[in-house]
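A quick word before the example. In earlier lectures we treated sequence and structure as two separate objects. From today on, think of them as two lines of the same record. Here is Enoyl-CoA hydratase written that way.
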Amino acid sequence: MDLGTDKMLAKVEGGIARLTFNNPEKRNAVSMEMWQAAEKAVTAFAADPSVRVLVLDGAGGKAFVSGADISKFESERQGEEAVAAYQAQTKRVYDAIASFPKPTIAQIEGFCIGGGTALAVCCDMRICEEGSNFGVPAAKLGLGYPIEGIRRLVDIVGISFAKEVFYTARRFTAAEAASMGLVNRVVPKAELAAYVADYAATIAGNAPLTIAAVKFIANEAVKDRGAADEATCDTMVKACFASADYVEGRKAFLEKRAPNFQGK
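And the structure line, produced from the sequence above:
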């Protein structure tokens, strides 16, 4: 996929889309150009029927994403209009990942700081290696932080831990991240890539209609009672039972073989 920059890489293989932040000399700090490329890739992946899972990762082995490229602040975030444009662009990427219709996994190696943490909490799952560390240094930079980003962190770790993350602006270890529920799994560094690949393949091999229904319904389930779109939830459940995949799943179980789901 041509993204107009070599700082972002995108590919699809075996039903698994992968978006790689490729700026290792700056620990994958993200520029405006990279945010724009990321939006293009995520939009294309969402529309691609062959994609069943999206994995986000960082190149170089030292960082997932270390935040915004501060060296670009003077050119990209100087002045009210520039700040507004930058925030609008990052919001589009965060929203696109948070609303992505298929499962998303953040594969976190090394630093996951600032915008990296914001990206990670937009994903359904976060899997990191033992040497990873996390943090949001907004309070050390004098940055304002939008409600959507804070809400996503609160939804995952709870309000007290979210306040701790923002108030202290310090770095948290992988073990601390696991203890607060920020990450789903912590694995040895040497095993991270294979572990995530296996997880993604497992998910990709399951029934797409069921996965899509679960993702939508889970997101509706955390809304206040009365605010959830229960009619759509019911429709999606019924579609699973009416699908050819439901027939295939039962047949494969009886025949003691792996099912071949088509998402139909």
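Notice the following. The chain is about 50% helix and 15% strand. We will return to this example when we discuss secondary structure assignment.
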